[in-house]
Amino acid sequence: MSSVIFSRWMASQKPRAHTMRSAPAFYRNLEEALDVRRKDHGLYTLIKNTWAEGATADFCSNDSLSFGASGRLRKAFEEELARNSSAQLGAGGSRLMDGNYDYIEAVEQEIADYHGVEAALIVGSGCDGNYAIFEGIPRPGDAIIYDELVHASIVDGMSRSLASTKVSFAHNDIDAFREALISVWDSQPLIKQGKKCVLIVVESFYSMEGDMSPLKELVQAAKEIFPAGNAQFIVDEAHSMGVVGERGLGFVEALGLDSEIAIKTHTFSKAFGSIGGVILGNHTVKNALVNFSRSTVFTAAPAFHQVAAIRAGYTLMPQPETKAGRDNIQHLVKRLFTKITAHPIWEEANDRNIISIPVSEDWEERNFQTQLVPLWTRERYGHWLTFHLDARKYSAFPVTFPVVPKGSARLRVVIHADHSEEQIDGLVAAICEWAEEMVQIETGTGGRGKVPWAAQQVYALTDEEGVNGAANKVTANGV
Ligand SMILES: Cc1ncc(COP(=O)(O)O)c(C=O)c1O
C-alpha cells in the first residue's frame, strides 16, 4: 500500500509543462513554475499519509500529546458541545463588529488566567497569530531582531510590519545576537535613547532543527545592552505548547521566564490536536492587536466550535494522563538518542555522512528535550530513508528543498506521548538497517546494487503503473 502512495508521488514529480504547448498560457506558466519544483523532487502533493490509514505508526504528525490519536480531545470536545448545545457555530462577523460573543471572551479570560497573563486573543491559526503580531505591534522607528530560522509566518508577518529595521542573527548564536543588538543600538539614535523599541523574535522549539532557543542567555544579553527595558521579546511557542513546563504551558514556563516575555503565541494545531492560536500579553498588547492588525480586523472571529475545541484541550491539561504523556516523551527521546548512538553501524554511517542526529550529541546537558528529532541525511537519501521506514511500518516526514536549504535534507521524527519503548527500539532498528544498507551500497560490499531495496520496490511499482518511473529514479550518485 505504502509503495503505491510513494510511486504515485514519484510519478507526480515528472515534468509536465512540455506536454502543454497548446494549452492556454495561464495554465502552461503555472505548470512551468511547478516543474521547477518537480526538477528537485520537491513538488508537494496532497497524498494521504500512511499512518492515517493505520498502515504505519505515526512518527510524523504534530499530535505529540496524542490528544487526537487517543480520542481524548474528541471526547472532551463532545462534552463541551453538550454543555453549550444552543451555541451558534459561526461568529457572524469580525470581532470588531458582530463577531464578538460571550463564549470566546470567557475562554480568552480562562486562558489568560491559566497562563498567568493579563489578556489573551484567540485567532484562527498560529500563522494568523504571527501575521497579527507583526502587523499590529511594531511601531514606526522600532527595530525587529529575529533568529534566521523563524517560521515562514513570522517572516511574512514582518514583511507587513511598520518596523523600520529588521535584522536577523545566525540561528541560536548568542554572539551573533549580541552583535545584532549592538548594531541596532549604534545605528538607531531613538532606540539608543529609549524612545523606540527593539522587538526580539524567536521560537521556543525549532521544528526542522529539533533544537530550542537559548532564551535565558538572549534575555540576559538584551538586558545588558538595553538596560532601559526597550528591548522586548516575542516568543512563538508553537511546538513547545503542552509538551514542556510544569503545567505543560511551554518553554517560557519551563525556563521560569514568564515575567521577561512581552508576547507569546501558542498554536492549537500541534500538541492540542485541533486548530487555532492564541496571543498572550497584557491589555495594551491585546488592544493594539485588535486595532492595528489587519488580519484580525478584516476577518471573521474564530467560530464557536473552534473555540470549544481549544477549551476542550485546556481541560485535558491538568489531567495526570497528560503529565504522564509529557514524561513519556522525555523518556523516549532519550532512549532513542541512547540506543541509536550505541548501534554498531552508527559511527561509520555518521562518518560517511549518511545519517546524523545533531540534537543527540549534547542531550545530557539539557534539562529537557524537544519531541522533534530530525535525522539528517544526504540530499536525496531522505526519500530512500522514508521509503525504508515506511516499509518497516514507521511514518516520518521527509524535509527537502525548498522547505530547507539545498544540501540539508532531513527526516523529521516526532515522538508522541502514546509511543512505546518497543516502537522506539523498532524505529532505531529500522533506521540502522537502512544505514547499514547504505554503507554497503557506498562501499560496494554485500552484493548490493546502487539503489536500496525499499526504493527499488517503489520504483518498480512506478514503472508497473506505466508512469515512466525510470525518468524519475534517483541513484546514490544523484538524479
Ligand atoms: C513556529 C511555528 N509557528 C506557527 C506555525 C503555524 O501554526 P498553525 O498551523 O497553527 O497555523 C507553525 C506551524 O508549523 C510553526 O512551526
UniProtKB/TrEMBL annotation:
Name the cofactor(s) required for activity, per the record. pyridoxal 5'-phosphate
Q: Which domain of life is it from?
A: Eukaryota
Instruction: Alphabetically list the UniProt keywords.
Output: Pyridoxal phosphate, Transferase
Query: Record's Gene3D superfamilies?
Result: Aspartate Aminotransferase, domain 1, Type I PLP-dependent aspartate aminotransferase-like (Major domain)
- List residues of the Aminotransferase class I/classII large domain: 58-431
Q: What's a BP term from Gene Ontology annotated to this protein?
A: biotin biosynthetic process
Molecular-function annotations in GO: pyridoxal phosphate binding; transferase activity
Under InterPro entries, the record lists: Aminotrans_II_pyridoxalP_BS, Aminotransferase_I/II_large, AON_synthase_class-II, PyrdxlP-dep_Trfase, PyrdxlP-dep_Trfase_major, PyrdxlP-dep_Trfase_small
Q: Does the keyword Iron apply?
A: no
Family annotation (SUPFAM superfamilies): PLP-dependent transferases
Q: Which family does it belong to?
A: Belongs to the class-II pyridoxal-phosphate-dependent aminotransferase family. BioF subfamily.
Q: What is this protein called?
A: PLP-dependent transferase
